[in-house]
Design a protein that fits this description.
31% helix; 8 strands; three-stranded antiparallel sheet; Aminopeptidase; alpha+beta; 168 residues
């Protein structure tokens, strides 16, 4: 898979060439309020993991750009977590792009792609219980709470969307 395109967004594999973009995205404390803090080396390692995921699995995190402007606006995609034996639907966007529906648009596209192309019955999203914006995205997708878990040292509510969910 080379890219996933929606009405307003183009998503391509996230890799080391996006290091500066990711540093800029994670520099905003509001963006990272519910994300694991990462320094430059941790971002580099995460991007190397993303590249390996794309090579080995054919999916991973993706850089999200506005199709009309070419501007990097965030990241979204699918992540395999071996500890849980699940594929997570993931998203994070620049704060000046919040409220535009980009997270829902990107997550819906990845949910559809994942449920059509991967040998899984469902996809998850690990959401901190105070993260109202991500909870709203999950709700719009038709995701339902599945369990409580610990993820990156924080308590999260694991939401899931399955093949029979209408919005998938």
């Amino acid at each position: 898979m080379g890219e996933l395109v929606t009405e307003r967004l183009t998503m391509r594999p996230l890799g080391l060439d996006h290091l500066d973009h990711m540093m800029e995205l994670y520099a905003d404390p509001e963006v990272t309020r519910f994300l694991a803090p990462l320094d430059r080396e941790a971002h580099r390692a995460r991007l190397e993991e993303s590249e390996e995921s794309w090579r080995a699995l054919g999916y991973g995190r993706a850089a999200v750009t506005e199709t009309a402007t070419g501007r990097f606006v965030g990241r979204a995609g699918l992540v395999w977590w071996s500890r849980m034996g699940e594929v997570e639907l993931s998203w994070a966007f620049h704060r000046d792009r919040w409220g535009l529906g980009y997270a829902t648009e990107a997550a819906r596209a990845w949910a559809r792609w994942g449920l059509r192309n991967l040998p899984v019955d469902y996809l998850t999203a690990n959401i901190h219980p105070d993260n109202a914006a991500s909870l709203a995205v999950a709700h719009k997708l038709g995701m339902l709470p599945r369990r409580t878990d610990t993820f990156h040292g924080a308590t999260v509510v694991v939401h899931a969307i399955g093949r029979s969910t209408p919005t998938a």
